[in-house]
Prior knowledge:
Layout: H1 3-13, E1 27-32, E2 37-41, H2 54-64, E3 70-76, H3 88-94, E4 103-107, E5 113-117, H4 118-121
Parallel strand pairs: 3-4
Antiparallel strand pairs: 1-2, 1-3, 4-5
Bound molecules: tetrahydrodeoxyuridine.
The site of tetrahydrodeoxyuridine has 15 residues, from helix 2.
Amino acid sequence: MELIELLAEAEKVCNRAYAPYSNFRVGSALLTKDDRVITGVNVENRSFGLTNCAERTALFTALTQGIDEFKAIAIYAPDGDEPTSPCGACRQVLSEFVKPDFPVIFGNSLENYVISTLGELLPYYGLEHLKDR
Ligand code: THU
């Protein structure tokens, strides 16, 4: 599956976001090693810190289903003026399960998106060679 198709899967679910506090909907789609798509949305709470981002919802759902090998993740956030990248917590949590070359696509529409990797988004992860400098 192409990354843009994975972004379209994230778009399909973003309206299920529970985001009454921020009004910022996010959908995520995780492509598993065996080409299944596991989705997630952000789930907010009146105690803001308890909010779960769409990416972690997707990841935790996959793990709950016994799936722990992944090919890529997409994040679709239509309420942003620009593509929204994963938050620091989600980058850190993802790093438990995927390598630095793991592709991450994020967009605010299917025409406006960024393609990156977890290693780019999480400095020093996968950059162990810098220790030699
Ligand atoms: N959010 C996500 O679900 N994923 C991201 O990558 C960025 C932020 C959610 C958290 C909160 O519910 C809302 O977006 C506003 O920050």
